[in-house]
Amino acid sequence: MLMRTIILYAIMTVCAVAFHENTFAVFELRELLLERTLNLWELFEQLEYVTAEQRAVVYSDIANIQAEINSIIEQLILLDKQQH
Question: Which of 2-11, 47-56, 61-70, 73-82 has the lowest mean pLDDT?
Fold first, then answer.
């Protein structure tokens, strides 16, 4: 029984390493992408109640988040091309 467990863990480890070179990098970038997307939605919600002078700041923040999202997507595409 112990030998089966050790063999099973060895096989799972080999499969995880062999088939996914950038697993953690992709996971981290996807997490950042999700976080930035949520930030973007929060900024859109802020547009409902901000004053006119604050609106320019929110627009600037939206542009910054949009640039970050585009950068993260480019990095994900690059990692995908390296993988395949």
Answer: 2-11
Q: At what angle do helices 23-46 and 52-83 cross, to 10 degrees?
A: 160
DSSP states along 38-56: HHHHHHHHHTTT--HHHHH
Number of Cβ within a 10 Å radius of residue 43: 19
Q: Domain limits of the chain?
A: 21-83
Question: Residue 20 in 3-state DSSP?
Answer: coil
Q: Are 69 and 30 in contact (CB under 8 A)?
A: no
Residues in CB range of 43: below 8 A, 6 or more apart: 58, 61, 62, 65
